[in-house]
Structures are given as structure tokens and as C-alpha cells.
Specification:
The complex is a heterodimer of chains A (452) and B (225).
Chain A (H helix, E strand, L loop, with lengths): L1 H12 L1 H40 L1 E6 L1 H6 L17 H7 L5 E12 L17 E6 L6 H5 L2 E6 L8 E5 H7 L6 E4 L6 E11 L1 H5 L18 E3 L1 H8 L3 E8 L5 H10 L6 E5 L1 H53 L4 H51 L33 H28 L2 H8 L1
Helix pairs in contact in A: 1-11, 2-10, 2-11, 2-12, 10-11, 10-12, 10-13, 11-12
Chain B lengths: L3 E8 L9 E8 L3 E7 L5 H8 L7 E6 L2 E2 L5 H8 E4 L11 H12 L5 H11 L4 H4 L8 H13 L5 E5 L7 H16 L4 E6 L2 H6 L2 E6 L2 E7 L4
Parallel strand pairs in B: 3-8, 3-9, 6-7, 7-8
Antiparallel strand pairs in B: 1-2, 1-4, 4-5, 9-10
Helix pairs in contact in B: 2-3, 3-4, 3-6, 4-6
The chains are: A alpha+beta (452), B alpha/beta (225).
Chain lengths: 452, 225
């Protein structure tokens, strides 16, 4: 106990040396702590987004591969390409690697007796009937572009549907009413169980302004129902499937399973990497920079601490000699030195924690805005790594919001706090190691006779 | 029985061909004040380093209470069994006077009443409470010497070894200090070994030994006054 007591007293006895060591320790701790705080916050965001983007899997035709295998030719187009049958899409959905699958299909229909938007002469078909196994996980409902405002979602196989408020208002329809759809010569009755607010036109903006008016492609004219009902009415036709992996790391296993189950090898299995890069790229770059910065600071700081410790230990050689001559054991002298360094480090850690928490947010903001600017410049100049928006493989999917993350809410979590404390401990050890080597190497007489 | 015995002790520094000490034989008993006299370079300080357990002889044996020093835990020995007053004081210069004494007592494992004992010892050496709170470097050479003596006595050792203890002291203080050493030997049954140039100090000792070219010889026994 007296060893620790003496070590703490020593802090005040050697103000000059300890102040210098303290300043260096503080600078290293603050720099490292800021890097760790930004790093851990970034890592959490990256992990979250990786989970989101990395678990959403699409299948698409890889034209380059199809061409190289002679399945796609200039004259015959994709005639030689084996399309994936709807049954296959459903079979793939049974994979053990999936947590859920968003399946959708659509077919063009007539609405006998109902008015439609963009009603132009010459069009027999008046709209589209969409089947989906789970409307609430579709991109548009998930993003809020479409929102159920009345009633509920349809149930499987109950001949139920939901329609847009605009379509309902145009025809004076309400929940509980029945509408007739006619994909071919047969008419089917569907009960309206829900009405949704439809902002798809606002979201798409003027993208389709140049297109000629067509009631089939007008989004307000869509009637949404379940897969079973859609199949009964018009066959499931073209199926779109989005598979959601249980874990992004299962991508390769799932891909292997798809090819083993007959997916032609000119179909690619891919996550939305471009979308991920667009949103998270600047944060990822910032995390890389802060990590590199932290490593440089730790190495440089460690070397500086070692040099200063070496200089300090020469000054303390006499003290070691006296303590040893008084009978203090080598181990206790070493414990005293380590305790003194630890006490100094704890002081610096407390100040460093407060300083780094205060400084890390503005540092992160500045770095992130710099990375976003770099990404924008790269995009403008068409360089690799630029973030770009990609068209979704889902025909009825709304465009995703691929705005890069512009805010990073830096927080001090337990994980970061432990890491910072460990770094401080490491620094204390680095600072003490020279003293310990010295203490164990020399006998007191040697030290005192050199001095005398 | 002698508390310390030197049997044919020799010592050579690493790499040196010549022995600093050779064939040293002596026995030191409790209750006696010894003076070892010798010229500079005669090996006095080396002899004290060996007796005080700071180093081991390169030849022969040093016995403490009949136990070979190589078998004694020398850290414990330095902490508890002996008190050394160094010629260069060897005090912790950044620490206060009282902290120097208290630390020595803590290392020795002294329990309870340490501060009071330390102040009492310092006052005996002429260091008052005000001075005991000062840093060692703020004291004169003589005062530092007295702090060194107080520190050596602070843990009540069996053997007190002093290297030129009166070198920095004025006449009166020297007489006071020598009286303390005499009391330690005669009243407290300590073995006190003093290395000195001073004939006055040698006259105060019970036995005088001479060290010449690494060889220790008995000179005389003073009659008690």
C-alpha cells in the first residue's frame, strides 16, 4: 500500500517531468479516443447498413455472360436464354438461408364499369393487378411512399384487394365494396379491404413525363392482391423475387444452392452493392482514415513515450538506487513506477475522455462532409468509387433513397470506453517498460557508485 | 557471538585484475562501536557495501548471525537488519525530510506510530518539525547528513554502518552525533561500524581497525572513559 501511496506522492514531487509525460499522454489519448469514438460509431452504422443492403438479394440476367456463352446474340436477342420459371422462383424461396422472400407478379386487366386515370381511347386493358406475398415488406410500403390509410391489408386466397385513394375517389369506392377485374374473357370479383395513400407519382417526379398516356402504366390504377388470388385470376406471369438472407455472410452459400438447384449460370446473384456504396461509402472512407490516423498516432506516440521514458529513467536512476539500498524489493520498485504511470494515465484518461467526447462530433462532421464532397467530385468526374443510383430489379419498386449519410451521431458506448481505457493502459505499460527493465538490470551499488 | 563476521573476504570489481579487498577477517559484535580508518582508495567504501549487503564478496564469506550472506535475503537484510549512513547521504531529494524517514520505515515494515517516531528521531538529530516538512534539497549538507542518520536508525536495526558520518558536521554536532552512536552501542546493544578519517571519531570508538591496500588489521581497543 505504501508503494502506491508513494507513487501518487511522486506525481507531485516531479511536476516538470510528469507534466511533460502527461501532456504527451493526453494528446495521444485524445487523438486515439476521437479515432475510436468515430470508428466505433461508423462501424455500428456500417454493420447496420451492411445488414440491410447485404441481406437483400436479387437475381438478374448477366448479359455479358449470356453473350459469352452464346445465349444472347445481336440478331436473336435473348432467344437462347432460359428464363427462370415462376415455379423456380417459388422453389428458391424455400431456402434455409432466407429469413423472408418478397414475391410479386403482375398481369394487365380491364376494370369493367370503372373509370381509370389516363383513360385514352385505343387501350382495351385499363390497369394492372399486382400480386404480392407480403405487401407490408414491399419497398413502397416500407419507405412510406404508399401508406394504408383505411381498412387493412388483404389476406391470402380470400379474393381481397387494396386500391389507391385516388382510384377509390375517382370511382366512389370504399372499403367493403367489390370491384370487377377482367384479365381475359373471365371476370373476377375482388372485395376492397383497404385503401392506401399513393405518392408514387410524386416520388417518380417527371421521370415518366415524356411517356405517352397509358392507363396500364398509371400507378393509381393498380390493384394489389395476394399471390394466390393473382394466380387464380391471371396466372402468376412474370414473377419478381427479392430474397432476404438471414445473414449477409450467407450470400455465397445461397448462391451455390441456387446454381445447384438449376439457376442458369448466366444469371447473377447479387446484393445491392452500389446502393450500399452510395449511402455508406463516405462513412466507410472516414472510418478507414480514422483507423489509419489512430495507428500512426499510437506508433508515433509510443515511440515518443519510450524516448521520454528513457530520458526520465536516467534522471530516476538515483532514486531507484536509493530505494533498492533501503531494501525495497525490485518488484515493489517496479510496482511503484507502474502505479505512478497508471495514476498519471488515469488523470489524463479522465481529461482525455471529456475532451475527446467534446471534440469528436465536430471532427466527425468535418471529415464526413469532406468525404461526401470527394465522393460527389468523383461522381461528377466519373471516377471509380463514385456513388451512383441504380435502377431496381423490381419493376414496381420505388427508387431507393441513396443519399449518402451526411450525419454521424458520435456516441460514447461501453465498447469505445473499454477500448480507450485499454489504449491508455497500453500507453502506461509502454511508458513503464523502460523503468522496469532498468530496475531489474542493475544492482543498487552499481547505480549509487556511478552517481557518487 | 559476533553479529557480523568476515572470513577471508576478498573483492574485485568486474574486469579488474587486482582485488580491492583481500583476505579480510574480522568479527563485529553487538554493544560495540567500531571505527575503521584508512586512506582514500584503501577499500573502505567497498567494505561497507559488502557489510551492508549492497554487493557480495568475490571470495570468502560474510556471516550475519552465523548465516552466510549468500543465503540471506539481502533486500530484507538491508530493510530490517542494518541501517546505513551513506557518505553522499543518498536521500530522496524530491521528497520531504519526513517522507524520507517514513518511506524507510514502511520498507522495513515498521507498523504504527511511524510519524511520531520519525519526528522524535529527527528532533534528536536537531531537525525540528518545520524543517522536517521541507524538501531535502532545501537543507544544508550537515542537516542532510543528520536526516541520513535519522533514516538509518528509523527501523531500529541490529547493525548501524556509517561512512564518514561527521564529514559535514560542525564540532558540536559531531560530538552530539558521536554520543548518539555511543548510546546506540552501549545502551541499546547495537553494533555500530563507522568508517572515518577523523581521529576524534576514532578516539570515541571502542575498537579501531585500519584498512590499508585492501587489508584490514586490528589497531587498538580504547579504554572506556
Amino acid at each position: 500500500m505504501y508503494v502506491i501511496h508513494n507513487a501518487i506522492k511522486n506525481l507531485g514531487r516531479n511536476k516538470g517531468r510528469n507534466s511533460l509525460m502527461g501532456i504527451i499522454l493526453l494528446v495521444i489519448i485524445v487523438a486515439t479516443a476521437v479515432s475510436i469514438l468515430i470508428g466505433t460509431t461508423s462501424a455500428a452504422i456500417i454493420k447496420d447498413y451492411k445488414g440491410r443492403f447485404g441481406s437483400e438479394v436479387f437475381l438478374y440476367l448477366d448479359y455479358a455472360k449470356a453473350v459469352s456463352e452464346g445465349k444472347y446474340t445481336e440478331y436473336e436477342g435473348s432467344k437462347g436464354v432460359d428464363s427462370v420459371s415462376p415455379a423456380k422462383y417459388l422453389e428458391y424461396a424455400k431456402s434455409q438461408y432466407l429469413q423472408k422472400t418478397a414475391l410479386s407478379c403482375n398481369t394487365m386487366v380491364e376494370y369493367p364499369g370503372l373509370k381509370v386515370f389516363d383513360d385514352e381511347e385505343g387501350w382495351d386493358l385499363r390497369g394492372r393487378l399486382f400480386g404480392s406475398n407480403s405487401p407490408n415488406i414491399s419497398a413502397e410500403f416500407a419507405s412510406g411512399i404508399r401508406k394504408l390509410i383505411d381498412g387493412e391489408f388483404y389476406r391470402d386466397g380470400q379474393d381481397e384487394c387494396i386500391i389507391s385513394k385516388d382510384f377509390a375517389d375517382l370511382n366512389g369506392l370504399k372499403v367493403g365494396d367489390t370491384i370487377t377485374v377482367k384479365p381475359n374473357k373471365t371476370e373476377y370479383k375482388l372485395k376492397i379491404v383497404g385503401i392506401f395513400k399513393d405518392d408514387t407519382l410524386l416520388a417518380e417526379g417527371n421521370a415518366n413525363a415524356h411517356m405517352s398516356k397509358n392507363p396500364v402504366t398509371h400507378r393509381h390504377n393498380e390493384v394489389l392482391t395476394d399471390m394466390e388470388t393473382a394466380e387464380k385470376i391471371g396466372g402468376i406471369g412474370a414473377v419478381t423475387a427479392t430474397y432476404y438472407l438471414k445473414d449477409p455472410s450467407m450470400l455465397q452459400a445461397f448462391t451455390d444452392e441456387l446454381y445447384a438447384n438449376g439457376l442458369p449460370n448466366y444469371y447473377a446473384v447479387q446484393t445491392d452493392e452500389a446502393g450500399y456504396n452510395a449511402v455508406v461509402g463516405p462513412v466507410e472512407n472516414m472510418a478507414k482514415i480514422t483507423n489509419t490516423f489512430m495507428i500512426v498516432v499510437l506508433i508515433l506516440g509510443g515511440v515518443i513515450l519510450l524516448i521520454i521514458s528513457t530520458m526520465a529513467i536516467r534522471e530516476r536512476k538515483y532514486e531507484i538506487g536509493v530505494l533498492r539500498a533501503m531494501g525495497m524489493k525490485k518488484g515493489k520498485v517496479a510496482v511503484g513506477f507502474v502505479s505512478e504511470m497508471l495514476a498519471l494515465t488515469v488523470l489524463c484518461l479522465i481529461v482525455g475522455f471529456a475532451a475527446s467526447v467534446a471534440v469528436s462530433q465536430p471532427v466527425a462532421d468535418t471529415m464526413l462532409s469532406g468525404q461526401i464532397k470527394i465522393a460527389e467530385q468523383a461522381q461528377n468526374s466519373g471516377l471509380k468509387g463514385a456513388y451512383t443510383t441504380t435502377a431496381s430489379t423490381e419493376p414496381n419498386a420505388a427508387p431507393k433513397d441513396l443519399t449518402p449519410l451526411s450525419e454521424l451521431n458520435v456516441r460514447l458506448g461501453a465498447d469505445a470506453a473499454v477500448r480507450i481505457a485499454l489504449v491508455a493502459l497500453l500507453l502506461a505499460m509502454v511508458s513503464s517498460v523502460i523503468g522496469i527493465v532498468f530496475i531489474t538490470r542493475y544492482e543498487p551499488m552499481q547505480i549509487l557508485s556511478e552517481r557518487n | 557471538m559476533s553479529v557480523l563476521a568476515l572470513n577471508n573476504v576478498s573483492y574485485a570489481y568486474k574486469g579488474a585484475k587486482k582485488n580491492v579487498l583481500s583476505g579480510v577477517n574480522a568479527a563485529f559484535e553487538q554493544g560495540t562501536l567500531y571505527a575503521i580508518m584508512g586512506k582514500s582508495g584503501s577499500g573502505k567504501s567497498t567494505l561497507l557495501s559488502l557489510i551492508s549487503g549492497l554487493d557480495l564478496p568475490t571470495g570468502g564469506k560474510i556471516l550475519y548471525n552465523d548465516t552466510d550472506m549468500t543465503r540471506v535475503n539481502r533486500d530484507e537484510y538491508r530493510a530490517k537488519s542494518i541501517g546505513v549512513i551513506f557518505q553522499g547521504f543518498n536521500l530522496l531529494t524530491n521528497a520531504t525530510v519526513i517522507d524520507n524517514i517514513l518511506l524507510s520505515m514502511s520498507i522495513s515494515g515498521v507498523k504504527g506510530g511511524k510519524r511520531q517516531t520519525a519526528h522524535s528521531l529527527l528532533e534528536k538529530m536537531g531537525i525540528d518539525r518545520e524543517k522536517s516538512g521541507r524538501k531535502v534539497l532545501k537543507l544544508s549538507g550537515g542537516e542532510q547528513q543528520r536526516v541520513g542518520i535519522a533514516r538509518a536508525l528509523s527501523h531500529n536495526p541490529d547493525v548501524v554502518i556509517a561512512d564518514e558520518p561527521s564529514g559535514n558536521l560542525d564540532g558540536d554536532t559531531e560530538r552530539n552525533i558521536m554520543q548518539i552512536f555511543k548510546d546506540l552501542a552501549h545502551n541499546e546493544n547495537k553494533c555500530v561500524i563507522i568508517v572515518t578519517h577523523s581521529k576524534n571519531v576514532a578516539e570515541s570508538a571502542d575498537e579501531v581497525w585500519g584498512l590499508n591496500k585492501g587489508s584490514l588489521t586490528f589497531v587498538k581497543r580504547n579504554t572506556p572513559q
